[in-house]
Amino acid sequence: MAGRGAAGACLFGAALLLAGCGSTSQGPAGGGVSAGGASTASSIPRERLIGRWGIASFHTEKDRKRTEAQAKAGCSQPYTISKGPTDGVMMHVADDPKPYELRLKGGPGGKNYVGFEAPAGDPQDREILSASDSMLTMRFVDPDANRRYGTFIYARCGT
């Protein structure tokens, strides 16, 4: 059973490394802007995202608990979210192996997003579905990226 989790983590890591096919020099799709309107301040502080995380993803809700356990096990090879040079966080985006500085943004209905300088809910954004000190849940806004990557669980790794 442990081999299956390791294999899944390896596949996920390989997907991130091989995902550079659709990138441009300005970031994926040139950092486009949606018609979603202006962003407001996020209700999630930047510091909540900064740290070392185990990551796993799921496509169906019935797999959430198993995925949370896989994310915790991913701390053996943690993903680091660090402070950006200005007010953002350094993270990867869909289909690009290079990390970018992304902004936390508030959107309509109290939703929170992380993404490039663009209105909240831009297709390149990730919607932050939940955020606690120990766990984050996010999904890509773009339907194609969401279909391919699923919903991400980030489990904070011990200090």
What do you see in this structure?
By secondary structure, the protein is an alpha+beta fold. The chain has 3 helices and 8 strands, in the order H-E-H-E-E-E-E-E-E-H-E. The protein has helices at residues 2-18, 64-73, 143-149, and strands spanning 51-58, 79-83, 89-93, 96-106, 112-115, 126-131, 135-140, 151-156. Strands 1-2-3-4-5-6-7-8 form an 8-stranded antiparallel barrel. Strand 6 and strand 7 (135-140) form a beta hairpin. The model is unreliable at 1-36 (pLDDT under 50).
Short description, anyone?
The chain has 159 residues and is of the alpha+beta class. It has three helices and eight strands.
Question: How far from one another are the termini?
Answer: 27 Å
> Structural class from helices and strands?
alpha+beta
Count up the helices. Answer: 3
Note the overall shape.
globular
Structural descriptors:
3 helices, alpha+beta, single chain, eight-stranded antiparallel barrel
Strands, helices and their partners?
Elements: H1 2-18, E1 51-58, H2 64-73, E2 79-83, E3 89-93, E4 96-106, E5 112-115, E6 126-131, E7 135-140, H3 143-149, E8 151-156
